[in-house]
Design a protein that fits this description.
The strands form seven sheets. Strands 19-20-18-17-22-25-26 form a seven-stranded mixed sheet. A five-stranded mixed beta barrel has the order 1-3-4-5-6. A five-stranded parallel sheet has the order 8-9-12-7-13, sandwiched between helices. 35% of the residues are buried. The protein has 818 residues and is an alpha/beta fold. The protein is 41% helix and 18% strand. The N and C termini lie far apart (95 Å).
């Protein structure tokens, strides 16, 4: 490398990716590239001089001459700090601009041949002098402000007098001493917020006048801002009120922006205003939103009130005001969708098709508010999704189970931190339309506490006459819910308040029959589980007999959730075999025990033979119907009656009525009255941990009492439900469909029902009616003649005096909570 005492010569080169350095100051450079490190080492071994050249493209890793600008800066290395092998921080004094004549070497580092950069000027000497003076004046203002800041914040424990300006900053005297216009430009550049391209242009420009003109706009802008800041500071010095101080600051900020010709800082407010104008919200809502924007324009953007107002306006904009999806009013297509996605449930499907037909003829009619009541797993929630699909509407599901705060429904007032709209408005935002299908799941499990009663808040939501103007506490403007189709689901109605229940059209979903379960398994559950377990139909074949055995022997439920779990267990067992290399698996009934274990349920009648004093009753529960055994035994005593098995008060009264009727008719029934008087009677209902109540076991209790005193066995394939009075009449009860389906699942052949319940059997599927013989009774004798094998020999005499008043019937059926 050549020695040099002037600018011209050959120097090691450091290419800069992102930075651009100008002469006239001292500053650090981070050195990391291997070639740059070698260049620094070579320069320090020579005369500490090096050339800094910015790259044209920062992405180039190993630049050549075409990748570097033609002008660079000759610099002197003042200090080298080594952080790690191959990584330095170099403090350099940037001396002057030089012209890059050529790269004379690229290995082991770049070496450039440089020469002095000749300055030119496209203006007259007078113009150059005037422009230089203008730049100097602006720079003096900027330097003065910088010195004032340093004076206010001196370093701790140090005196500012007699010290050099920190970080290489200039003093007023140094600025006054600069005569060369190019050096004045280089001195002013560090005080300006210039982009890389602007700095590069200043570096490579050789025309002095053009260099001055490039920095004048930035200097003028900064000097103007400093002058206005000084005016604001003078005005604020005498002000003690913080409110007045903030107002003055905002006014001055607007003045600065206007004087500088900048765009208003309220771009966010303008954007919100444009969205409000473009939205389909009503005039009332638009006026509320604009009022909030007006408040925002008077606030500082950092204030909490500003953020609350902005969040409120954004929530208003997210509500799909007057946005509706077009209903698919093709009744045939809707029927096909419902049939494809759900087996059975004809009553519900018929109601949906009725709604479609009415909607087609009367488009402005309010949407229905339906309540699907039924045991778990019968498809209440999934039916709501199918309804949305058949109508072509958006689907929204809200789970209300355990909700105990009214604000969950109506929203929180905006005075609270973190307030949000309620679930109803949030559901509309999620749907993106004002006419979705809303499924309010588990509405019977709403709870109330000191924060309010959410069921009371639902009264307005589910009232077709009121929900057109539903007001959320957060939104505080009317929201039209009249076009929403609300579908509520519940397992029981007893826990739903009467006013809320009165607003909904109840549709009962009973349990599925075996035929319906088999169809659901074949068409829905098996394909779903095959897909979830990565098995194809070609790899696994599941016989209908095997599925039917899973239904009978491994599940005992009204719905199909446990059935799906058992099918999933079969698929898991098959997946193991497929993973081990089996190509085709055929699951038949004998193989189920290997996959699922021994059968969990056996027909209750198959396990029993006719017994004295043991009868099968029928019960209704929130999760479907069930059978219930009633056991009676007598033993020597004093004619007392003992009742066990967690019986409720109503059921105890039914047992007392059965015993009284038996004693009153003992002669006609062939019962020894002395035996009754000398015997204690024990009536027991198994599953003692479960509470049981209701009047519908009355007839069954009477038959069991007659059986135990006459020693006649009761048929094990007969089940009985019905309330009794002291005259021996069979009175109607509720839950008929669920009870008959439970009897069918248990293998019962004959079911006795009160004659006045015959109308309730219309909804029982035909396959169940064909498998079970339904008999209707008006008197207990009608059941005795079949259950005990023979009828009484003499008819029941009419009482000579009015009988005692029958016990209250209470609820329509037993409740056996799980």
């Amino acid at each position: 490398m050549t020695k040099h005492t002037e600018t011209a010569g050959q120097y090691p080169v450091i290419p800069l990716r992102t930075e651009v350095q100008l002469p006239g100051h001292v500053g650090p450079l981070e050195i990391g590239r291997e070639a740059s490190v070698r260049a620094i080492e070579a320069a320090t071994r020579d005369d500490n001089l090096i050339v800094i050249i910015p790259q044209k493209n920062p992405a180039v890793r190993d630049p050549g001459q075409r990748d570097l600008h033609e002008v660079g800066v000759r610099a002197e290395i003042v200090q080298v700090v080594k952080h790690s092998p191959g990584r330095f921080t170099c403090v350099m004094r940037f001396l002057e601009r030089v012209h890059i004549d050529a790269l004379v070497a690229t290995e082991p580092f770049l070496v450039a041949s440089v020469s002095s950069l000749a300055a030119t000027s496209s203006s007259t000497a007078e113009q150059l002098i005037a422009t230089t003076a203008k730049v100097r004046d602006y720079l003096l203002a900027v330097v003065t402000d910088a010195q004032a800041k340093e004076a206010k914040e001196p370093a701790a424990g140090q005196k500012s007098e007699g010290k050099e300006p920190p970080r290489g900053e200039l003093t007023r005297a140094q600025v006054q001493a600069i005569v060369d216009p190019d050096k004045l430009v280089d001195a002013a550049a560090p005080y300006l917020e210039l982009e890389r391209d602007d700095l590069t242009a200043l570096l490579v420009e050789t025309d002095t006048m053009k260099r001055l003109e490039r920095i004048i706009p930035s200097l003028e802008r900064q000097a103007t801002v400093l002058r206005l800041k000084a005016d604001i500071g003078a005005e604020l010095e005498g002000e003690s009120s913080r409110t007045h101080r903030e107002r003055v600051l905002r006014d001055r900020m607007r003045q600065i922006q206007e004087e500088l010709g900048e765009q208003d800082d309220n771009a966010e407010i303008d954007e919100l205003r444009k969205k409000i104008e473009d939205s389909k919200m009503s005039d009332e809502v638009r006026a509320v939103a604009k009022k909030q924007l007006s408040r925002m324009s008077q606030m500082a953007s950092s204030s909490p009130e500003y953020n609350i107002a902005r969040t409120y306006v954004e929530n208003l904009l997210e509500i799909p005001w007057n946005v509706f999806t077009d209903d698919r009013l093709d009744v045939g297509a809707a029927r096909a969708i419902l049939d494809a996605e759900h087996s059975g449930l004809e009553k519900v499907k018929r109601r949906i098709l009725e709604f479609l037909a009415v909607r087609k003829l009367a488009p402005n009619k309010h949407g229905p508010i339906l309540l699907f009541v039924g045991p778990p797993g019968v498809g209440k929630t999934s039916l709501g999704r199918s309804i949305a699909s058949s109508l072509g509407r958006k689907y929204v599901r809200i789970s209300l189970g355990g909700v105990r705060d009214e604000a969950e429904v109506r929203g929180h007032r905006r005075t609270y931190i973190g307030a949000l709209p309620g679930r109803i408005v949030a559901g509309l935002k999620k749907a993106g339309s004002m006419n979705p299908v809303f499924v309010l799941d588990e509405i019977d499990k709403l709870a109330a506490d000191m924060r309010g009663d959410p069921a009371a808040a639902m009264l307005e939501v589910l009232d077709p006459e009121q929900n057109k103007d539903f007001v959320d506490h957060y939104v505080e403007v009317p929201v039209d819910l009249s076009k929403v189709m609300f579908i509520c689901t519940a397992n029981q109605t007893e826990t739903i308040s009467q006013p809320l229940l009165d607003r909904m059209e109840m549709v009962e979903l009973s349990g599925y029959t075996t035929v319906e379960k088999l169809a659901i398994a074949k068409n829905h559950l098996v394909p779903k589980q095959l897909g979830e377990h990565g098995i194809t139909r070609e790899q696994l074949e599941l016989d209908d007999d095997a599925v039917a055995d899973v239904i009978h022997s491994y599940t005992r439920e009204a719905g199909v959730r446990n059935l799906e779990r058992e099918i999933a267990a079969v698929c898991r067992g098959a997946a193991v075999k497929v993973a081990e290399g089996s190509e085709k698996i055929h699951i038949q009934k004998p193989q189920l025990e290997e996959l699922l274990g021994p059968p969990r349920y056996v027909s209750d009648t198959a396990e029993r033979s006719p017994e004295v004093g043991v009868i099968t009753g029928l019960a209704w529960t929130p999760v479907g119907g069930d059978i219930m055994f009633i056991e009676t035994r007598i033993y020597p005593g004093k004619g007392e009656v003992r009742l066990t098995g967690q019986m409720g008060d109503v059921m105890k009264e039914s047992a007392q009525a059965a015993v009284t009727w038996t004693r009153a008719n003992s002669a006609r029934l062939g019962v020894d009255t002395d035996k009754i008087a000398a015997s204690d009677l024990h009536i027991h209902l198994p599953q003692g941990a479960i509470k049981k109540d209701g009047p519908s076991a009355g007839v069954a209790l009477a038959v069991a009492v007659v059986s135990v005193f006459t020693k006649r066995p009761i048929r094990n394939d007969v089940a009985i439900t019905g309330e009794i009075d002291l005259r021996g009449n069979a009175l109607p009860v509720g839950g008929i469909k669920e009870k008959v389906l439970a009897a069918h699942r248990a293998g019962i052949k004959i079911v006795f029902l009160p004659a006045r319940n015959e109308k309730d059997t219309i909804d029982i599927p035909d396959e169940v009616k064909n498998a079970i013989e339904l008999r209707f009774m008006t008197k207990i004798d009608d059941a005795l003649s079949v259950a005990l094998g023979e009828a009484p020999t003499t008819p029941e005499p009419e009482p000579a005096i009015p009988p005692p008043t029958a016990p209250s019937r209470g609820s329509v059926g037993e409740r056996l909570p799980s």
